[in-house]
């Protein structure tokens, strides 16, 4: 290979690497912004801690990131914090829950499953909270004080 070809190949490789870094930085910035919005929503809408919730058979659910899910129980929404390997954002159609013996309610320690049976992820509910869909979940402005 001639030296001119080597220089051209090196320049092309450097350009590709720089483009990849720029894309990676843009993707990281977008992920950080999405995470900040998700955390702002949680901070604004999360209510009091609950010991248990008692969903019915036809109540719904919505993903809220990989570590939490919203569960509907008799017309009210609740946030369940999760620990484990389930992925609520990838559970397109349904999730499943496993409750303790002798109860129809969910509480800490009960399980949430996503994905196909036997191969999907499994999480444990670590906390339950009331959820207020009506609360303002906008990010605080740079001039407004942030509550600690």
What does this structure look like?
- The structure is a single chain.
- The protein is an alpha+beta fold.
- Helices cover 29% and strands 31% of the residues.
- It has one helix spanning 3-45, and strands spanning 46-50, 52-53, 61-63, 68-73, 76-84, 95-98, 106-107, 111-114, 121-131.
- The strands form two sheets. Strands 1, 3, 4, 5, 6, 8 and 9 form a seven-stranded antiparallel β-sheet that branches. A two-stranded antiparallel sheet has the order 2-7.
- The protein starts with a helix and ends in a 17-residue tail after the last strand.
The gist of it:
The protein has 148 residues and is of the alpha+beta class. It contains one helix and nine strands; from the N terminus they run αβββββββββ.
Largest sheet: 7 strands, antiparallel
In whole angstroms, the N-to-C terminal distance is: 62 Å
Computed CA radius of gyration, to the nearest angstrom: 22 Å
Number of beta-strand segments: 9
Average pLDDT works out at 75
Q: What is the element string, with H for helices and E for strands?
A: HEEEEEEEEE
Count of alpha/pi helices:
1
């Amino acid at each position: 290979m001639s030296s001119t070809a080597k220089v051209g190949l090196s320049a092309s490789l450097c350009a590709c690497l720089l483009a990849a870094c720029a894309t990676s930085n843009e993707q990281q910035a977008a992920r950080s912004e999405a995470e900040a919005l998700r955390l702002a929503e949680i901070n604004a809408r999360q209510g009091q801690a609950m010991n248990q919730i008692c969903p019915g058979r036809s109540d719904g659910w919505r993903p809220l990131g990989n570590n939490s899910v919203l569960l509907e129980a008799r017309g009210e929404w609740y946030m369940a914090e999760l620990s484990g390997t389930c992925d609520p954002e990838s559970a397109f159609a349904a999730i499943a829950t496993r409750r303790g013996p002798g109860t129809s309610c969910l509480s800490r320690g009960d399980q949430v499953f996503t994905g196909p049976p036997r191969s999907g992820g499994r999480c444990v509910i670590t906390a339950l909270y009331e959820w207020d869909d009506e609360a303002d979940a906008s990010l605080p402005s740079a001039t407004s004080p942030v509550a600690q």
